Amino acid sequence: MENMPIKITNAQRAEILTQALPYIKEYYGKTIVIKYGGNAMINELLKEQVMEDIVLLHLIGVNVVLVHGGGPEITDTLKKIGKESKFVGGLRVTDKETVDVVQMVLAGKINKTLVNKLEINGGKAIGISGLDGHMIKAVMKNEELGYVGKITEVDVTPINDLIEKGYIPVVSTIGCDECGNVYNINADTAAAFIAGNLKAERLITMTDIEGILKDKDDPHSLIQKIDIKGCYELFETGVIGGGMIPKVECCIDAIRKGVKTVTILDGRVPHALLIETLTDEGAGTMVVEDLDK
Is-above-0.85 flag for pTM? Predict the structure, then answer.
């Protein structure tokens, strides 16, 4: 009985659509960048719902840009060829063989799978990588990490061209330098640069946690809205620590690059994207420049 779908009347459906109308008006013609990757991509049912949400947003006039990573799939593929993954400071040590696998998995398998799922659900999507048009330019972050890239420049012209033609751009986060070397790029960082250069209305980064918590062991202690000053206070007190530090830093970077709001969204919530964009409820932590403005 617990898994039976909830039955709603036509009047209730109409009420739901009416409540969504102000949000549809607000985002019509605006750009929303969605960062999707890591553990948030593992559950196939949730992945299908994310694709449905993106297509719906696109069909109501929102310019959706999907930026993805794929760490777990890269790890699995490396394991299949007998190569162990090593991490330093949360970043994958990437030698020449590993970066070839990263390119194959991100720009190939994952990118085209997401494009295919969007198309099946009624969307128009084209997959590109940071190599296309040399969109994401990078240099080596440090020699210890190997071919892990530090972004120097992002040219969003290819993304804008696809938006103008009515497509959903699906971007895999690999970059290159002037010599043609390929680099593994952190997807959160790439999404922040892309959203900033697009002057996006919003950046939504989908993850496998509730958002920023006052108490990391209490999912009910979710902070629904916070500003940059508040984030730095939580850095200092250790409330934001570990793997959350780079995620929140990317949120701050995106806002400083001109994005109005950034949301860390719990990708485990069914249809979290629609809840976040088209309802009052929200489904994560929203980061803004200044709560007093």
Answer: yes
